[in-house]
Amino acid sequence: MKFSSVSFLAAVFSSPPSTPLFGGSSSVVVVSASTIVEAVKKESGREKREGQGRFLGAFSKADSLRETLLERKNKKPRKVRHWKPNEVEEVDFNSSTALGRLNSTTSLLGRLGIEPSHTKVESFAADLSDGIPCTKENGEADRKCDGYYACDGINPDHVGCGSCNGVRACLFATEAVIGEGSCNGYRACHKTSGAEIEDQSCNGLYACNLSYGIVVEEGSCNVSGWIGETCALAPGAHIGKESCIGDLACKNQDGSKIGKGSCRGFQSCDGAGNIGDGSCNNNYACTSFNGTVSNDSCNCFKACAFGQGTVHDGSCGRAYPDINICKGEYACMHTHGRIGKDSCNDNKACFHSSTFIGDQSCNEVGACFGVNGYEIGSCACNTDFECLCVSEEGEEGSTCDNSDGVFTDAQKSTCKSAKAGKGRKGDRGSASANIFSPDD
Question: Do 217 and 197 contact (CB within 8 A), yes or no?
Answer without folding.
Answer: no
